[in-house]
Task: structure prediction
Amino acid sequence: MSTRRTATAVLALGLLGGTSLAWSQTANWRVKEVFDAGASVYVRALTVEPARGALWVGTSAGVHEVDLVSGKLRNTFTRKEGLANEYVFAIGLDRKGNKWFGTNAGGVSRYKDGQWKTFFPMHGLADYWIYSFGEQRSGDFWIGTWAGVNKVDGKTGKFTTYVKELVNEWVYGIAVDAQDRVWFGTEGGVSMYDGKAWKSWTHKDGLGAPNSDNLPFSSNTGLGTRSRHDLSVSADGPATYNPNYTFSILSAKDGSIWAGTWGGGAAHWDGKAWTNLTAKDGLAGNIVYSVAQDRDGALWFGTNNGLSRYDGKGWKNFGMKEGLLERNVYAIAVAPDGDVWVGTRKGVARITR
Result:
């Protein structure tokens, strides 16, 4: 593929026109190409489906299916096609091949082979606001909402809701570890369910770094409040501090857990204690929206000030001067070929080595 990309395979809602992007290089990794989705469009979710060779892109204006090899657009889904709401905040894949789309105020839409089914609270869903998915070995499927989590029984499809068991009812991230335990990143800390018992951690337990920059504490992160049960597309993360607020969570290959906090950097649970990485260590920004791990085991963090790659020894950071369309990185997905796709406002960047 050429080192310069024109707009023949953009994500649909906006075109790059005749503009092209030269390779930007940071050590061995560089921005290979960008796909523009429109100046006012936010890319909040990215999920790779290896079986289809597809990248699913959830935006504030619908869902796109993109060919991972060519970068060409395969499909676009909006309400017209069957999506419950265009603002998609989470995309999940289950072992049956279903695609689950979590929307902002529109519930969950499930899609497979051209067939749609939408779930609302009347069907057992905990809330209309959906922000994360996860699946266990049994096929039990978890849905994170602003009113607790749902477990959808893999055999019967029955919905069970958990609220009081969590440290906080607003669930933004879900991860299933190698022991089949389910981890939840919430607005009030991290909770874990091992199939029998629940356990939780907060800043008092070491989650999130200290407020060394003396930022103002804010319970309103700009991503919604209980009095304004909505999410603004213009919220880019003000310089405030709330280390309990965990927006992303990842189960790493070594069995440890990584959690992205609001102002407290990236928190790491090694099974015994929490440690934290911040901008002072090399992280691009202390608000961490997304976390992923590549084939080499290196961690990627999407922050309010760019993208970071950390291999345990050194950091490689990407910002707009390296080719990103915008500095807030909301979503990360690693393709089977090792390429890393990142979502920001305006579109998606493809990073390669």
Summary: The chain has one domain: 7-225+237-352. The radius of gyration is 19 Å. Confidence is low (pLDDT under 50) at residues 1-26, 227-234. Residues 148 and 163 are 4 Å apart (CA to CA).
